[in-house]
Amino acid sequence: MKRPAVFLDRDGTINLDAGYIDRLERLELYPFAIDAIRLFKRAGYLVVILTNQAGVAQGLYGEEFVETVARYLAERASLGGGGIDGHYFCPHSPEAVVPAYRVDCDCRKPKPGLALRAAADLDIDLPRSVVIGDRWRDLAVARAIGARAVLVKTGYGATEALHPPGDGTAADAVCEDLIGAAVWLLDHPLP
Description:
35% of the residues lie in helices and 15% in strands. By secondary structure, it is of the alpha/beta class. The protein has a single domain, classed as 3-Layer(aba) Sandwich (Rossmann fold), CATH 3.40.50.1000.
């Protein structure tokens, strides 16, 4: 049976957006992130991270480091009573310095490739799912897959909220942070 998912952006949503995070010491989780993930899991949602990682395409770090961060986040979530069911990232950029990553792919947000791959891998019910992020490009993924969309004001979110894109992308809710998004989702469940 298909299950709904919470698709989370990483930088600016789960952790402080500190530019290209190239070592674990620079990864600073928001203090509410693990609590929010635990709430999503207890409410019956799969938790899946979808993140653009152009630092790989720029040669600043490798895919192995992105996987190291994914393992670290999964461990922290597990220790906090939650869990992360999937971690999907796009290493591509049309302007990549590393030629192998200079690709106009279907996985770089705002395109929905990462979410569609996760849905196939994890048997996700997309119409009952939600995408949460601090950028309109995150919410564009929600619209492309038929999910709900929540903009958080952490990271770039406060500025993004002031400048809707005008392409029809809209938020079902705008919340202060990820814990606020968790509360909103628990107050607005789908059948």
